[in-house]
Structure formats: C-alpha cells, structure tokens
Hints:
Helices cover 7% and strands 10% of the residues. By secondary structure, it is largely without helices or strands. The longest helix has 4 residues, at 40-43.
Amino acid sequence: MRNWKFGKNQGKLRTNALGIPRDGFGFSNDTMGTFGPPSFEKAAFKVTAGKNNVSIKLR
C-alpha cells in the first residue's frame, strides 16, 4: 500500500528538480526503496478479514 499527501490539492505528488517528493509519502511495512518506490514484496502484507490494522508513517 502506498500513500501520499497532496500539497496544495493538486491531485498529484509534487517533486523537486531532482525528482525527490516535496509532499509527504509512505509505504506499508514502513519500507523504502533505494531509488524509487520499494518492491511489491517489501510492501506487501497478508489481508485477513477483521484483523488488519495498517499504519503508514508519512515522510
């Protein structure tokens, strides 16, 4: 799962000239990629009805 906070309600993730996000972003399992988003395997989690609680820390 990925999540980001849109700055100024533009509907897309804002980045600087180097492509680094200017808005808050985060991924499930609090994982990060080296250059870009993490792999699916690192961010994946098992969904169990009524038992999942996922917190994502925005950076």
